[in-house]
Inverse folding.
């Protein structure tokens, strides 16, 4: 039902994974750098996942060991396969807590709360058995169902699913179509989110879209890994930008780009809250350079959650570097009605309380001024 390419063996070539409906065996076609590709499904213990009517596929580093693991949606119970450092796959019977599926289709790994671990989202054809959409939070390698807690549980008839940062606030959003209804967009507004960095890759000599490239961010004693996918989930394409959650860290100590083949490129420290562009095919394997990638997005980001506002509403501020900020609230006539804060905020993501008790019913504009410019977001007070 779905095919995807990624380098499970880390030899610089892209391997082809194909999962099937109808109780057919799924396939893993190993790329040895020449044709034909060789089916290694049985040799890697990957072949039996088709036994449950496999639909969609997602891949990501579930346990933080730097190797791509595979999650398969099915009818009933999902399949999770842990990559044994390229020496095959180990099926985890309970899928590390993310076993429950209905008639599941699209699925994506993405670090929705920016805490260094990839979380998981699954969409179902709810008319089959009533199973709604599922959000599994990754807590140090174990998945916890947070669908209802995070208000991410919906009864829908859908199959496709993709993740994308539509509002450029550093928090991944989701989009999925309805069979007979509107397209749904779920905006990512996690409580107490961590910091982040985004990386766009552009090849200059080959593979211009950098499909299959792997990005490793060294953050203290952790290594966070992201990938450029050429299509996965179910008949879907997520944003071809590598999004990495950094937790409390305000910078990446080192960024390593594995372009494919023998091309590897290494970069020095980068501040969180940035979207960087890396262009080139890299240096020969084993070499180390520390050029400075181009900063795509240095604009400070401002958003409010929840919105319409409640007594618990907070402003989320993302800064590429520490800066003096002035945040104030204006009514629709352009009058300043409240000064929220005026101080230096650290690089990365900060939260600031919004004085909702000073606001009557209506629409307001929150304005943040920094040395580099002004950012505004609208909020609604309903009472």
């Amino acid at each position: 039902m779905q095919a995807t390419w990624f380098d499970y063996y880390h030899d610089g070539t892209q391997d082809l994974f194909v999962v099937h409906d109808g109780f057919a065996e799924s396939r893993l076609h190993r790329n040895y750098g020449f044709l034909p590709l060789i089916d290694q499904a049985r040799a890697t213990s990957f072949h039996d996942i088709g036994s449950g009517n496999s639909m969609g596929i997602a891949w990501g580093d579930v346990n933080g060991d730097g190797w791509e693991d595979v999650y398969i949606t099915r009818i009933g119970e999902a399949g999770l396969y842990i990559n044994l450092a390229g020496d095959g796959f180990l099926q985890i019977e309970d899928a590390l807590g993310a076993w429950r599926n209905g008639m599941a289709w699209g699925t994506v790994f993405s670090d929705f709360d920016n805490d260094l671990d990839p979380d998981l989202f699954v969409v179902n054809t709810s008319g089959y058995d009533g199973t709604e959409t599922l959000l599994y939070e990754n807590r140090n390698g174990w998945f916890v169902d947070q669908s209802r807690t995070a208000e991410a549980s919906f009864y829908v008839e859908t199959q496709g699913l993709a993740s994308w940062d539509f509002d450029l606030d550093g928090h991944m959003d989701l989009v999925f179509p309805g069979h007979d209804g509107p397209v749904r967009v779920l905006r990512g507004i996690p409580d107490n989110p961590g910091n982040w960095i985004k990386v766009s890759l552009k090849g200059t000599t080959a593979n211009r879209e950098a499909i299959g490239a792997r990005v490793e961010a060294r953050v203290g004693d952790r290594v966070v890994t992201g990938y450029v996918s050429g299509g996965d989930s179910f008949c879907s394409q997520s944003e071809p930008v590598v999004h990495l959650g950094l937790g409390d860290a305000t910078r990446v100590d080192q960024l390593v780009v594995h372009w494919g083949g023998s091309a590897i490129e290494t970069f020095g420290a980068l501040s969180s809250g940035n979207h960087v562009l890396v262009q080139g095919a890299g240096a020969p394997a084993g070499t180390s350079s520390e050029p400075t990638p181009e900063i795509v997005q240095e604009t400070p980001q401002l958003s409010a959650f929840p919105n319409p506002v409640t007594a618990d509403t907070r402003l989320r501020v993302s800064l590429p570097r520490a800066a003096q900020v002035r945040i104030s609230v204006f009514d629709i006539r352009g009058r300043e009605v409240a000064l929220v804060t005026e101080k230096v905020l650290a690089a990365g993501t900060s939260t600031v309380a919004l004085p909702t008790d000073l606001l009557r019913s209506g629409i307001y504009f929150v304005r943040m001024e920094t040395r580099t410019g002004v950012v505004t977001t609208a909020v609604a007070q309903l009472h």
About this structure: The longest strand covers residues 100-110. The chain is about 0% helix and 45% strand. Confidence is low (pLDDT under 50) at residues 282-289.
